[in-house]
Amino acid sequence: MKALAWHGKHDVRIDTVDDPEIVNPRDCIIKVTSTAICGSDLHLYDGYIPTMQAGDILGHEFMGEVVEVGAKSTLKKGQRVVVPFTIACGSCYHCGKHQYSACPNGLPADNQDIAQELYGHEMSGLFGYSHMTGGYAGGQAEYVRVPFSDVGPIVIPDGVEDDKVLFLSDILPTGWQAAEYAQIEPGDTVAVWGCGPVGLFAVQSAFLMGAERVIAIDHFPHRLELAKRFGAETINFEESATYEALMEMTGGIGPDAVIDAVGLEAHGMFVDNVIDRIKAATFLGTDRPHSIRQAIIACRKGGRVSMPAVYGGFVDKFPLGAFMEKGLTLKTGQTHVQHYMPGLLNAIMEGKIDTEFLISHRMPLTDAPKGYDLFKNHQNETTKIVLKPGMTATA
Amino acid sequence: MTEAHDDAPAATSKRRGAADTVTESLTEGQGSSVVARSVTINRPASELYSYFRDFANLSHFMENVIAIEVRDPTHSHWTVKAPAGAKVEWDARVTEEQQDRLIAWTSEHGADVANSGRVEFREAGDRGTVVTVTIAYDPPGGVVGKVIAKMFQREPAIQARRDLRRFKQLMETGEIATPAMNPAQFEEMGL
Description:
The complex is a heterodimer of chains A (395) and B (191).
Chain A: E1 2-8, E2 11-16, E3 28-37, H1 41-45, E4 56-57, E5 61-69, E6 80-83, E7 86-87, H2 93-96, H3 112-119, E8 125-126, E9 143-146, E10 154-155, H4 162-165, H5 171-181, E11 189-193, H6 197-208, E12 213-218, H7 221-229, E13 233-236, H8 242-249, E14 257-260, H9 272-281, H10 283-298, E15 304-307, H11 320-325, E16 329-332, H12 337-349, E17 361-364, H13 368-377, E18 385-388
Chain B: H1 18-25, E1 33-41, H2 45-53, E2 65-70, E3 75-81, E4 87-98, E5 102-107, E6 115-123, E7 129-137, H3 142-151, H4 156-173, H5 183-189
Antiparallel strand pairs in B: 1-7, 2-3, 3-4, 4-5, 5-6, 6-7
């Protein structure tokens, strides 16, 4: 089969590799029909994530048609499914509490050592995201082996197009969870840092959860425009002073809840020396902690901080004093995708959530290397690239 | 040996001589190095005990075990991978057992690696069962041998940790997590 494989910094290629087969009884194999490039994939592309190996197949946002099932899979050949990016077993203590991204049973035993060392505990396995998260082949490929197919993938009814439901795999539940973690009360003003896909879904979700006002903060005009389309007020931090603007826009109170959706980087797998490299090499290293600091400083007294943005190592100058003195609450974590999928699928089908607005480009899988380049270098216009293995390649 | 002043398990003690305390606590204990590790498994103690007590099952999740030959209910012969392609063997004898609660063993005279230990199963309500494995052993080649074993990832502490994770995966999900793309690759990668 053809698959997008990582070969080093800024070097991704379409390789021909063996088709995956059923290994464990609960597996299924899906034929991928749509798969997206995530902002966090760019950090693999930029070479910031350790434990990558040449030939690793990328991609953790994908869906497709079931073509093979293991003895204990409950899926049927021909069903269309969206696959959650977190690999969770459904039967452990954490899965029982719907804390799917904390499931230890999808992460191979040997790979658990690194996270245990770094975080004190192992986390769930992920598709296409380095060997620390399990070394699983990802979905930017013609076929994928999906473990725990009896509990992970959600079946999509016939007639609902891929582009409507693909984002159930990661970014829509992530934006929704971010808004849920902000514990929005009717009449609240919610400020969202970052209008990437997760921030934009957090904007929509916050309104659905009863927020009266949402204030979106970014510096890409096109992305702010999209936030505005959903009813958000906007702050372009290159044109206005964010803290001062927020205070004035809320009558000196500050937003009731703040959401840091900047970055959405590594799905949690930086080690601190890598963080240092990033800090030194790019603006992200300094700007990302900046957004959480700014969010805490701007948040009203007794307010809520939600942090879907991914931090993997250590952050300097975390304003712990402001956090304590103002009595804030912080909720964060990798997304428990499986918990949110059914409800969000319904919300999409009922037309309550718009997903397709996000897609700026559709291209064949074989154009994926071009897609990575475009996504990295043209962030204003490139909001989301969806790869279609079935599409014919352009010349 | 000074008395402990807290409730922390002896295997986590920083005190000199703590390993001896652990070894002494084992039935017919022997071994100067000690490894202890707990894992909570979301299954009833009786189920975990039964699976574990059938020693032939252990090679399903213990990566370094080449073969366990069960000779009678209390005697078995173990062949285990050692660093640098070597292997070690011993005869093991069950020294104590309590249905659904505890299994203890010791190696017989002439073992390549003298060892003893116990595995305990403790009911933990809606969290399942806490399984605690304690192993005392004499590392081959003393401290140097231990370092070499660690380099080759065959150090008992690393093994116990990973084997217990696989035991948990197998008991809770019916399978062992692997990124393998096909059965042949799974075979090649070991457990």
